[in-house]
């Protein structure tokens, strides 16, 4: 079992707990049949107040592959949310039927409200521009698997660092590892929020530098983590249009990168990675996406106290 019954941000897991999740995920990957019935009779509720493809479907696949079942909504307007029901009342309702709750919400902090309304495990599947801890588990496990570990790496985070919750979560988690060099690459309008810079990066003494041009730092990177400009978080469409194609990683730019650099992306992508890059052996984003299912299987098992 884990120390906390909810996972709202990466710091809700200790480094040791994360390592246990990664080891379990790797065993599940290698021996899926061993885990096919560990969640028999258990029900997961997936409450998605915001669109998702990977997170919702990988949680669904994770629970089904563990032998459990899944219910919930992907469109809150088809639920009593449409009639004005509060998060707290929806969670109390779902708690009568399910064993574990996965929630995505556009408002920062909504999963914390959910966790305070129930005794069930609650997993934050992304809250506004804030945190996305299961993407972080996926990202760390991908780095472990394809770079052999996190310590000692130079990691570039590129794109919308202002609104990209996957970046905020990943920086938080990386702040606990030794000797990691972070290169923040963004347009000046989309730099990392001040609270992340002060409360996480400076508070932990992280080694970081900021860049505007990807080409200026690309040759130094072991990992390049690309992100989409988060259209849904912009107040002004003109700003989005001006910034959306600021970075486009293509085959020509990839000539500047190390031969063993890996390219990651939480996906969905829009234009920031040209399709031609998909055939580059350094492209890791589809493997990363698949990894998300195994990591979520392991997390669900740990939160529910299930064993093979
Ligand atoms: N990475 C991620 O959160 O993707 P979805 O928005 O499709 O769930």
Give me the Rg, rounded.
19 Å
- Write the CATH fold name of the largest domain: Rossmann fold
Q: Detail the poorly predicted runs.
A: none
Distinct small molecules bound, one entry per kind = phosphoric acid mono(formamide)ester
In round numbers, the mean pLDDT is 96
Number of helices: 10
Features:
single chain, 308 residues, alpha/beta, Rossmann fold, 2 domains, five-stranded parallel β-sheet, 10 helices, binds phosphoric acid mono(formamide)ester
Explain what this protein looks like in three dimensions.
Helix 1 (15-30) crosses helix 10 (285-304), helix 5 packs across helix 6 and helix 5 (133-147) packs across helix 10. The chain has 2 domains: 10-131 and 292-304, Rossmann fold, CATH 3.40.50.1370; 133-288, Rossmann fold. It is 35% helix and 15% strand. The chain is globular and about 55 Å long. By secondary structure, the protein is α/β, with parallel strands linked by helices.
Describe the structure concisely.
This protein has 308 residues and is of the alpha/beta class.
Topology, element by element:
Layout: E1 6-7, H1 15-30, E2 43-48, H2 54-65, E3 69-73, H3 87-95, E4 100-105, H4 110-116, E5 122-127, H5 133-147, E6 154-158, H6 165-174, E7 181-185, H7 194-202, E8 207-211, E9 223-226, H8 237-243, H9 251-254, E10 262-264, H10 285-304
Parallel strand pairs: 1-5, 2-3, 2-4, 4-5, 6-7, 6-9, 7-8, 9-10
Helix pairs in contact: 1-10, 2-10, 5-6, 5-10
